[in-house]
Amino acid sequence: MKKNYVGIACSQHDPAIAIVNSEGEVVYAESTERHLQNKRTWNTFADDLIHVEYLLKKYTDKDADLVIAKTWSGKTQLSLKIIFLLLPLFKKKMIPYVYNVYYYLIESLQNVYDFSGKSLRFQRRMSNPDVNVDVHNCDHHLTHAATACYSSPFQEGVCAVIDGFGESTSTSFYSYKNGKITKIPGIKKSLQSLGMFYSMICKVCGFDPIKGEEWKVMGLAPYGKYDESIYEKLKKILDVEDTRFVSRNFSVLNVYDELFEMKLKPGHSSIEAADIAYNGQLIFTELMSEILTQLHGKNISDNLILSGGCALNSACNGLLLEKTPFKKLHVYSAPGDEGNAIGAALLSFYKDNPSKNVPAAQMSPYLGESMKTEVMKNCKEHSGLKHKILNGQPLYQHVATLLSEGKIIGWVQGRAEFGPRALGNRSILADPRSVEMKDALNSRVKFREEFRPFAPSILHEYGEEYFENYQSSPYMERTLKFKSAVWNKVPAVVHEDKTGRAQSVTRESNEKYYDLISAFNEITGVPILINTSFNVMGKPIIHSVEDALSVFFTSGLDVLVIEDMVFNKSDFE
């Protein structure tokens, strides 16, 4: 009997669904926030009753048994209940904000975990009452590790999972060899959390970690400078000892009190918090580098596989091969909690199929939905909107020419990327040669802070020409240093500290996007495009034709390309 596997990321934030077929292929993975168009979808279960009916029909075999794999184990529920009962005992010793956040996190995780999977089970049994539906509960950090390891190009490596918190620890370490993931013995649990440390920095800088605004800390940090008093205050919080994070003193709660006294006041410019961001990012990188250096000392592998929320810190990731003894680094496109949906589904598949070999090829990030054909057809026939129909090289040449003329373009092709970053299929694109382009994008398209940087998508073969110590970065997962000779050549993607969060593009990874950048390179001599996610601040990346048109007509986009349809605002004047 065939079996299909549905992984459900069932944390209280960033829920997602991944589907693995009976051959072990990931046929679908997407965050719930995309189709709901609700950023991070807090306290929401991924298997919406109506949406999963559509997913099951499209991506699973009707007569197959179903395994629902959750990204937290059953034992966690008992632990959460105990913590929930004990938490009020510490209320007087905790900052109200911290206490309230912990209270909400624990309560909502219990709720989301309990309900996740019930709609899936209902819909499968309604469509075929004869199939079996089983539920697997997976260890949270192990699902992180599985997504990271199974998506990597490595046959062997050492995997580090570092996030806010998992199941009784904030860090977990695994060896990976020939498709087998094994927890490294002898490492004590880490109750202190690097992820929570960074969330606190985010809050003190005046941003909101609940909304996932840690990105803003990374963007702001290069505008700051080293400040000994801030640095020493932050250094009191965490240290690394025997491959785990520990508190440097017993008055860590008092340190947080001091930090909150530094918190940026409402009405003040974010730039005023730049020194806090700089020193917080500096210490984050030092702590991450130290714990990974100690991990390398276990003599398991020179290949590092990194996952967990802390692996989203691209500014740190770009320095890890320089600051640790590791020789290679892999970070998948979805290292956060949404990515665990893949890990849970694959863990369940390989549990049932232990002799099945893990594919040697690196996993594609393009696992989400495509634009619906029926909606595209309706748009062409009934919208009344002027548009061109172009395909292949004529499309790339036309769009590349518009880009070279300074047009800002919404670009929608194929299946959506899985993870928080646009990788050329749900992107807003622009010319990196323009000094004014960064401000134009922030002010009239993205509607966000002026200090926020934009990423360069670069043809992989030109990487060494533009970046110092170039590393392939297929998922825009690491920040690299631009060579001084090109600073003035692509100023719109050179950040304040002369870095850029690079995306290495190959024809094998994304043929259409590669050919578009190649066409732009032929016109301009620059093999780079500005690539930012197709959304406005506070909203998820667009999911549908309707979403794309909405952003196009309510922002400063000049041109919209959806598959073969090209809309130009100049045609509507």
Report on this model:
Helix content is 37%, strand content 18%. The protein is of the alpha/beta class and 573 residues long. The strands form 4 sheets. It has a 9-stranded mixed sheet with strand order 13-21-20-14-15-19-16-18-17, sandwiched between helices. Strands 3-2-1-4-5 form a 5-stranded mixed sheet, sandwiched between helices. It has a 5-stranded mixed sheet with strand order 8-7-6-11-12, with helices on both faces. The radius of gyration is 23 Å and the shape is globular. The N and C termini lie far apart (60 Å). The mean pLDDT is 94.
Contiguous low-pLDDT stretches (5 residues minimum) are: none
What is the tally of helical segments?
20
- Our Rg estimate from Cα atoms comes to 23 Å
Determine the structural class based on helices, strands and strand pairing: alpha/beta
Annotation keywords:
single chain; 573 residues; alpha/beta; 21 strands
